[in-house]
Write a structure and sequence with these properties.
The protein is an all-alpha fold. Helix 2 runs antiparallel to helix 3 and helix 3 packs antiparallel against helix 4.
């Protein structure tokens, strides 16, 4: 499979798997709900499914990072590529940890001797999960987007509208990360848009995208110093 198609397929799979896992987590841990109230309707199963989906989402995201970086090729900027790779791995690691915390919350439903202590453990786990996803992972995802958009801007490998939209979305994530738990869905949505554009360029689908401002040959030569 060619690099553009591999990146696109990996991105679409990640967007679907990761987006589904996020929705399951959000519905299991609704905003503003009292601690342990999410167990009343039996939605703990959502966290179990999310914990199963997250590793597969992580695998596709790693593939997406690899093939995108390979696609940049000789136009790679070492500084921004390092930030791009580092922020992507940090984002993925934090989402793995938050998923594991969710699995721990499900396991904590077993009968406990000290019910008050159990409530405290559940409260700690919920705050840890939401803080990891909203405060830290989401902002690392925004840095990932900014670094990749900067590479696209310097190399002209992607259209200007996508670069501008990426910057706007990333800044919104940085500012509004703690406002709503659902803001996290902006990241897989962005990956899906990038992947669909790649599929369109590869001729797999026809989205009637026109990229008159994309001229990779006019991109600056890589810094050899």
């Amino acid at each position: 499979m060619s690099t553009p198609r591999a990146a696109a397929v990996a991105g679409v799979l990640f967007a679907l798997l990761f987006g589904t896992a996020l929705v399951l987590i959000r519905t299991a841990l609704p905003e503003g709900a009292e601690h342990r109230s999410q167990w009343v309707d039996g939605s703990a199963g959502h966290l179990k499914i999310a914990a199963v989906l997250m590793p597969f989402a992580g695998i596709t995201f790693l593939w997406f990072i690899g093939v995108v970086r390979d696609g940049i090729g000789k136009y790679e900027d070492k500084f921004f590529s390092s930030v791009f790779l580092g922020s992507g791995l940090l984002f993925l690691a934090m989402m793995f940890v938050s998923s594991a915390v969710g699995a721990g919350l499900v396991a904590s439903r077993r009968p406990q001797v000290d019910e008050a202590a159990h409530d405290e453990v559940v409260a700690f786990g919920q705050v840890l999960l939401t803080t990891l996803t909203n405060t830290y992972a989401l902002r690392m995802g925004a840095v990932f987007m900014i670094s990749l958009a900067t590479i696209w801007l310097k190399t002209r490998l992607m259209p200007t509208w996508l670069v501008a939209g990426t910057y706007l979305c990333a800044v919104s994530l940085l500012i509004a990360a703690d406002i709503s738990m659902w803001v996290t869905l902006a990241f897989p949505a962005w990956v899906l848009v990038v992947s669909l554009l790649a599929l369109s360029r590869a001729g797999v689908i026809d989205l009637h995208f026109h990229d008159p401002d994309v001229t990779p040959g006019a991109a600056p030569r890589p810094d050899k110093t």
